[in-house]
Each structure stands twice: as C-alpha cells, then as structure tokens.
C-alpha cells in the first residue's frame, strides 16, 4: 500500500551508465551500473500473474529491476526503447534484448577452461581478494541494502505491533483472554516476520571466505567470527563448473518469489563426479572472475588441464 501511494522509481541512462533511484517517502536506494557492464535488457513473466511482467537490465554484476509489475504491451515498448538507447551508446558491442525468459526452465552448466586471461570483478562485487605468497583468499560480505531492510522492518513492526496492542488489552482486561485465540493466525504471522527479520540480519552479518593454499582449499562461513570451517583436498578435484539455476529454482530460493540477482555458482567437481564444493549466490561476473583467479592458484592441481578461464 505504501508503494502504491508514495513509491516512485527513476531510471537514468547516459554515457556513464545506468542509474536507478527508488523512493517510498524517503530514498530507499541508489544503484548504478557502468555502461560497459550492461549485458542485456530482458522482459520476463511475473511469478504472481501471467498478465504481469518484470523488466530488468542485466549486467556483469547485479541487475537493475524497473517498473514492476508492468503489462506486456508497456513492457515491450519500454524494453525496446531502453535497449535502443543503450545500444546507441555502445556501438562497438551487441547488447541483448530478450522479451521472454520463460524458456530457461533447466539449469545451465558450463565447464570453465583456461584462456590465459582473467576478467575483472563487477563494480558492485561483494567479494574481495587477498593474495599472499602461496595463498589466495576470497572474502565475501553482504552490502547493506536499505530497501530490503526497511521493508522487512516495517512489516515486522506493523504485524507484531498489532499483536502487542492486543496482548496489552488482555493484560488490562483478563476476561478478554479469548481474543488471543482469535488472533492465532496473526501470532503465527508475527513469528514468521520475526524469523524473516533475523534471517535478513544474519545475511547482512555473515562472512564467507575461501582460501586456496598448497594442495588444499578451505571454506568458512561465520558470524562475528563464530562459524564452520571445511577443508577440501585439491588432488581429488576433476574440474570446475559454472552453473546458473533455472528460473523456477531461483524463485524457490527467493522469499519474495522473484528471480535471484545472484543465480550463479562455482562448483568444484570431484573425480568420481560428485560436487565437492559449491560456491553459490554469485553474479556471473563474480563467478567468472573467481574462476579465473582459482585457475591461477590451482594450476597443475587439476587433471586433464581442465581449468577455468
């Protein structure tokens, strides 16, 4: 309701790239993608209704979503206009235009091979690189997202505030205890919103690290330094794969039902064919960049010369 009444979006396209602003009374966020990182303009069906569509500008990092929901006619016209403008600003390369992504129903898998050149990470990458003699370390920390934080916070406050008010009235008038029974669905909703709130906080505070040393790769996930560390023997690794989840799988993993902004994963596959390590929740740019850096660190460790590019 707040979005319908007070929400606004603004998309600016120029030689410097694409800039997106979102407001609901106050500014909730500003996203910017350099022009050279723009990959395509895509229009796909919304998971909520076959008559609603979602427009996004795909990039080397996270995409920019704009004008959601939007009907098919307006979506096609807007997608073509944005694509024409972006292509005019980038005459030396092809920017894609996809008007229906429903066909991507299965997982996409690519075996990464060395091409002698490592790409750079996207400008919005949440992963940092630390290199020491004989060791390469990737550190992943979430960027604080005000829009996600505010929306979950408001939902939690509204639902649980209503419950707190009812409980306060029951404390003042114990004879109205049956109100708590009537409000059981609200109490369940309040519990769910608190779980979502805690999940958002845990996601913001979580740190992921992957360290490649002589003959071993170490993966660790922690919050405030408390977490789990796993060790992997590189001698049993056969190849590295780049995988992109299907649209259905992306929507299952997203609490909002939208496609994920980070649907890619790097997978270290063992010689027996099983997945030894999955580094998930990556953008395509992050996955290919990490794959390239891993190839440099793992040179000579994997058989058959199967290395990421």
Question: What is the overall silhouette?
Answer: globular
N-to-C CA distance: 47 Å
What is the string of helix and strand elements? Answer: HEEEEEEHEEEEHHHEEEEHEEH
Instruction: Classify the secondary structure makeup into a structural class.
Output: alpha+beta
Radius of gyration: 23 Å
Q: How many runs of DSSP E, i.e. beta strands? A: 16
Q: Main attributes?
A:
single chain, 309 residues, PH-domain like, 2 domains, five-stranded antiparallel β-sheet, four-stranded mixed β-sheet
How would you characterize the overall build of this protein?
The structure is a single chain. A hairpin with a 4-residue loop joins strand 15 (264-270) and strand 16 (275-282). By secondary structure, this protein is of the alpha+beta class. It has 2 domains: 2-98, PH-domain like; 104-309, no CATH class. The protein has helices at residues 2-6, 72-89, 146-172, 178-182, 184-205, 247-253, 284-297; strands at 7-14, 17-24, 26-34, 38-45, 53-59, 64-70, 96-98, 108-111, 127-132, 135-141, 206-213, 216-223, 226-233, 237-244, 264-270, 275-282.
In short:
The chain has helices at 2-6, 72-89, 146-172, 178-182, 184-205, 247-253, 284-297; strands at residues 7-14, 17-24, 26-34, 38-45, 53-59, 64-70, 96-98, 108-111, 127-132, 135-141, 206-213, 216-223, 226-233, 237-244, 264-270, 275-282. With 309 residues, it is of the alpha+beta class. The chain has 2 domains: 2-98, PH-domain like, CATH 2.30.29; 104-309, no CATH class.
Helix and strand arrangement:
Blueprint: H1 2-6, E1 7-14, E2 17-24, E3 26-34, E4 38-45, E5 53-59, E6 64-70, H2 72-89, E7 96-98, E8 108-111, E9 127-132, E10 135-141, H3 146-172, H4 178-182, H5 184-205, E11 206-213, E12 216-223, E13 226-233, E14 237-244, H6 247-253, E15 264-270, E16 275-282, H7 284-297
Parallel strand pairs: 4-7
Antiparallel strand pairs: 1-2, 2-3, 4-5, 5-6, 8-14, 9-10, 10-11, 11-12, 12-13, 14-15, 15-16
Helix pairs in contact: 3-5
């Amino acid at each position: 309701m707040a979005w319908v009444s007070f929400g606004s979006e603004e998309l600016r396209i120029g030689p410097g790239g694409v800039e997106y602003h979102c407001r609901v009374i106050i500014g909730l966020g500003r996203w910017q993608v350099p022009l050279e990182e723009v990959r395509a303009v895509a229009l796909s069906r919304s998971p909520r209704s076959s008559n609603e569509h979602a427009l996004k500008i795909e990039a080397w990092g996270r995409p920019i979503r704009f004008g959601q929901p939007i009907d098919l006619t307006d979506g096609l016209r807007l997608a073509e206009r944005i694509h024409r403008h972006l292509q005019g600003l980038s005459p030396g390369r092809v920017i894609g235009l996809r008007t229906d992504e429903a066909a991507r129903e299965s997982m996409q898998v690519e075996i990464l091979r060395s091409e002698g050149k490592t790409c750079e990470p996207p400008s919005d990458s949440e992963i940092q690189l630390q290199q020491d003699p004989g060791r390469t370390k990737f550190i992943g920390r979430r960027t604080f997202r005000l829009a996600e934080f505010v929306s979950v916070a408001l939902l939690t406050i509204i639902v649980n505030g209503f419950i707190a008010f009812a409980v306060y009235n029951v404390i003042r008038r114990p004879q109205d205890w049956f109100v708590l029974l009537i409000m059981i669905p609200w109490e369940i909703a309040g519990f769910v919103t608190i779980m979502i709130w805690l999940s958002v906080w845990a996601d913001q505070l979580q740190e992921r690290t992957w360290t490649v040393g002589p003959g071993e790769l170490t993966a660790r996930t922690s919050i405030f330094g408390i977490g789990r560390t796993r060790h992997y023997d590189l001698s049993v690794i056969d190849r590295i794969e780049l995988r992109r989840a299907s649209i259905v799988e992306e929507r299952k993993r997203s609490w909002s039902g939208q496609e994920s902004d980070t649907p890619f994963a790097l997978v270290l596959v063992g010689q027996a064919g099983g997945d030894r390590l999955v580094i998930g929740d990556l953008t395509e740019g992050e996955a290919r960049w990490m794959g390239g850096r891993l190839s440099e660190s793992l040179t000579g460790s994997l058989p058959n010369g199967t290395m990421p590019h």
